[in-house]
Amino acid sequence: MTAKTVPNSIDATLTLLGEAGYVADRSLATVxxxxxxxxxxxxxxxxxxxxxxEIAKVLAQALGRKLIRLQCYEGLDIAAAVYEWNxxxxxxxxxxxxxxxxGDKARIxxxxxxxxxxxxxxxxxxxxxxxxxxxxxxxxxxDRTDEAFEAFLLEVLADFQVTVPELGTVKADKPPIVxxxxxxxxxxxxxxxxxxxxxxxxYPNAERELKILRGRIPGIGKKLSEQVVGFVQALRKEDLFxxxxxxxxxxxxxxxxxxxxxxxxxxxxxxxxxxxxxxQDDIAKIDGGKVKALLEDVKADLxxxx
Length: 306
Description:
Blueprint: H1 10-19, H2 26-38, E1 42-45, H3 52-63, E2 67-71, H4 78-81, E3 83-85, H5 87-99, H6 105-112, E4 118-120, H7 122-125, E5 136-140, H8 147-159, E6 161-164, E7 168-171, E8 177-182, H9 190-194, E9 197-200, H10 206-216, H11 222-235, H12 246-258, H13 266-271, H14 280-286, H15 289-305
Helix pairs in contact: 1-2, 10-11, 10-12, 11-15
């Protein structure tokens, strides 16, 4: 894919996202435009499944840039996020040097701590120059890490550089486009948020969700797509442990099209709730009479809107 320059306006950002299949509202496009133009990371918070991760993927695709993803988890450390040495290869090199009679320990040490033995992890990879332009660095689900890693990340985001003691400092010629996501399972420290432009990504309204659905599943029928979106929107008003996100809407619609459904009925909804809700307590709360009542309300609203 041919690399593109970053958009020069909010409208151009909306167009760029739309051409890549992402239906964004203007507030999101504004934050993305500013983050790219100012060289600032963007910090996206929101419920799981609303499309935070997808934004980084779409930006990389639309701009023709490399996507580098750091998936966060509890216990993530520098060796997994930044770099580590290939100790096995280093030991072999040392053994070979000794076998060949090499006695200069300083030279051996210099050789084994050269770049060819360095295993570059996502944060270090993101600082390297690329012919297509600075990559898109996705730091996904930062809230899963601990505060120690978050503190280390502050240094990286401040100067876009990393120090490898044996080699020196690696600094990006041009900063990568950084997208940080959080599902808000814990609060991320204000010091990190201050280095970013912040945006809360909520559930889309019915109109935007319908556009997303029809864009991702173009073969879905008009009636079914409207009923699916209406039912999901109604579910989000219920007291559930985990409301369905856009990802679940798409999964459910995909499952219904595989079943050749043309419209929703209580039996079909009940049989496929597992594609939409991911907790048994939520399924038990909705299944049965509640499904029928919600579906009747959705169909009545759609008839009234015609």
